[in-house]
Amino acid sequence: MKLKDKIAVVTGGGQGIGRGIVLCLAEEGADVAVIEINPETARKVATEVEQMGRSALVVVADATDNDSVVKSVREVIDHFGRIDILVNNVGGSDEGSSDSIALGGTGWDGYYRLTLKAHVLMSQAVIPYLIEQKSGKIINISSEAGRVGSPLLMAYSAFKSGVISLTKSLALQLAGDNINVNCVCPGVIWTPLWERLARGIIAMNPALKDMSPREFFEKRIVSQRPMGREETAEDIGRTVVFFASEDARAITGQSLNVNGGNVMN
Ligand SMILES: NC(=O)c1ccc[n+]([C@@H]2O[C@H](COP(=O)([O-])OP(=O)(O)OC[C@H]3O[C@@H](n4cnc5c(N)ncnc54)[C@H](O)[C@@H]3O)[C@@H](O)[C@H]2O)c1
Q1: Residue 166: which domain range?
Q2: What integer pLDDT is reported at residue 101 of this predicted model?
Q3: Active-site hit among 111, 112, 129, 156
Q4: Is the CB of residue 56 less than 8 Å from the CB of residue 31?
Q5: Ligand 1 atom closest to Cα of residue 236
Q6: pLDDT (tens digit, 9 = 90+) per residue, 43-68?
Q7: Helix, strand, coil percentages for the chain (3-state, nearest 5)
Q8: Judgement on whether residues 135 and 212 belong to the same structural domain of the protein
Q9: Separation of 106 CA from ligand 1 center, angstroms?
């Protein structure tokens, strides 16, 4: 086990990629606090963690709200006594849509709050504890969209690039305190976020109206990729485990594509 008895915090751990990350961390021996806005999914994942013989704490909180974040981190410290690993996973938009936000779109604030601000708030709240114990791992979830521009997903892409930049700055700031900060850039994973995105694209394109969201994802997205397959939440979770483990002790400020070669820069 690579993370035996480590304490991990995962934002948005109730479903999709976050759930995959939580379960991979638990599989390697970590106890996990799930910071989630949706209590139901968070409780389900916590039960799965407990069935694996690890401890789980559900903290219902809004990762985009500073008071809520500070309170949630305090709750984790009160319960577990420390934090070793922070995974900033939430992202997308908190305005109920994940469809196209081009330059003229009105949804930029929503993308900012969930994709970049949440990472900043959680980091601000957790870092003092990591500095005090002179150790820690922060893993940010960006996207391959943060590596390249996207006229369709301009806001998402811009703030995901911000996550890559934030990773480098934090890594430099915290290196002297024995804190590693790295980033994972996932490719395409079939989660509720992708389902919402596919629905939005179909709704805007009459030519696609007979396709289900899953069909659109398989035929128009996955089939175009170099390896011809989608990634899984576990692919991302295992990469997070690597960055959180001592195997990656010499690695900081890096952003790793986990995308089957679709974007290589
Ligand atoms: N799915 C993909 O293909 C893909 C690709 C690249 C990057 N990503 C990134 O991976 C991360 C996870 O994506 P996903 O597809 O699993 O998303 P998702 O929308 O399916 O799940 C996000 C989770 O975050 C929770 N959440 C939402 N707002 C919250 C808030 N304010 N506070 C606390 N929790 C909140 C939701 O309840 C949900 O459980 C995101 O940062 C996303 O941008 C996803």
Answers
A1: 7-188+232-258
A2: 67
A3: 156
A4: yes
A5: 10
A6: 999 999 999 999 999 999 999 999 99
A7: 50, 15, 35
A8: no
A9: 20
Which residues of the chain register pLDDT less than 50? none
66-115: pLDDT as tens digits: 999 999 999 999 999 999 999 999 999 887 655 566 677 778 899 999 99
**Residue of 193, 196, 231 with the most ligand 1 atoms within 8 Å of its CB, for mutation:** 193
- Please indicate, yes or no, whether residues 37 and 139 belong to a single structural domain of this protein: yes
> 156 and 51, same structural domain?
yes
Residue 164 lies in a domain: yes
Give me the residue label for tokens 């150790």. Answer: 135
Q: Which of 31, 29, 32 is CA-nearest to residue 3?
A: 29
Residues 89 and 209 in one domain: no
pTM, rounded to two decimals: 0.98
Q: In this structure, what CATH number is given to the domain that contains residue 120?
A: 3.40.50.720
Between the CA of 176 and the centroid of ligand 1 the distance, in Å, is 31
| Tokens, residue 193 | 């976020």
Q: Structurally, how many domains does the chain consist of?
A: 2
